[in-house]
Specification:
This protein is α+β, with helices and mostly antiparallel strands and 234 residues long. The protein folds into three domains: 7-87 and 215-227, no CATH class; 89-153, no CATH class; 155-212, no CATH class. Helix content is 26%, strand content 32%. It has helices at 7-12, 49-52, 56-70, 161-168, 177-187, 196-211, and strands at residues 22-33, 36-45, 76-85, 88-89, 92-96, 99-103, 106-107, 111-113, 117-118, 123-124, 126-131, 139-145, 220-227. The strands form five sheets. The protein has a four-stranded antiparallel sheet with strand order 1-2-13-3. A three-stranded antiparallel sheet has the order 8-11-12, with no helix packed on it. A hairpin with a 7-residue loop joins strand 11 and strand 12. The chain is globular and about 60 Å long. It starts with 6 loop residues before the first helix and ends in a 7-residue tail after the last strand. 30% of the residues are buried.
Length: 234
């Protein structure tokens, strides 16, 4: 039945890494329990150690896209696909007490700060620690909400405010960081009458830039997906 479901052919085919050659790839079915199939993937780009630091998010997205695009929806409920790294928590949104919180990618054991802010002191609304390991993959846990957070104050806006706000909400990657930083510099040049909001958004952009390059190994694993109705693991 596993062969009929098309799993084997998908596992044997390495995901494509944009602009990178895959140096090592191995995949296997780890378990099929009830309606859940668990795969384990090992994927390494052919890159030196320093470059591989920035490639973990790319490898993560490549694996996720590979399975989303190739698993047959006849047998699998693709909305249940879950991909986890064994070394990092990918950039994620989590819901805590009804509020959506956004965290940048960080390594296991590190604590990250949410993009969402806590006013009036403009500190992170929440922190979360990346936990997990080889067996269960990495996820954001131990979410702590800052105390005494008020409503976001109303600021005067400059001609740069809306664009800076959008840039502060942009996930910075290897492909876009130069553009983000260049646009930020142009929007905050001395000719602009900057407001308090502009300063806050600029600080968030710079913080996001410092956070985006935080992983240092290309291993991705822990894929879980629910099977569709009417299938069996035989």
């Amino acid at each position: 039945m596993v062969q009929e479901m098309g799993i084997s052919s998908i596992l044997f085919q390495a995901p494509s890494l944009p602009g990178q050659e895959v140096a090592y790839y191995r995949a296997q079915i780890e378990s099929i329990v009830n309606s859940e199939v668990k795969f384990r993937i090992f994927l390494a780009p052919r890159a030196d150690r320093l470059l591989s630091v920035s490639l973990e998010p790319m490898a993560y997205e490549a694996v996720k896209t590979h399975f989303e695009s190739n698993l047959p929806s006849r047998y699998f409920k693709l909305s249940t696909l879950s991909v986890r790294s064994t070394v990092m928590c990918a950039s994620s949104q989590v819901v805590e007490n009804g509020k959506t919180l956004t965290f940048n990618a960080i390594k296991i054991g590190e604590t990250g700060f949410s993009w969402e802010r806590c006013y009036p002191n403009n500190k992170a609304y929440a922190t979360s620690t990346c936990r997990g390991g080889y067996d269960d993959g990495a996820t954001f846990r131990e979410i702590k909400i800052a105390e005494n957070c008020g409503e976001v104050p109303v600021y005067n806006e400059s001609e740069s405010t809306v664009t800076l706000r959008n840039l502060s909400q942009t996930v910075i990657t290897e492909e876009n960081y130069k553009t983000v930083l260049s646009n930020t510099a142009n929007l905050t040049n001395p000719d602009v009458n900057l407001t308090a909001a502009d300063i806050i958004y600029t600080a968030e952009i710079l913080y996001n830039y410092l956070q985006f390059d935080t992983v240092n190994t290309p291993e991705v694993s822990e894929i879980h997906i629910g099977k569709g109705p009417g299938t069996s693991p035989t």
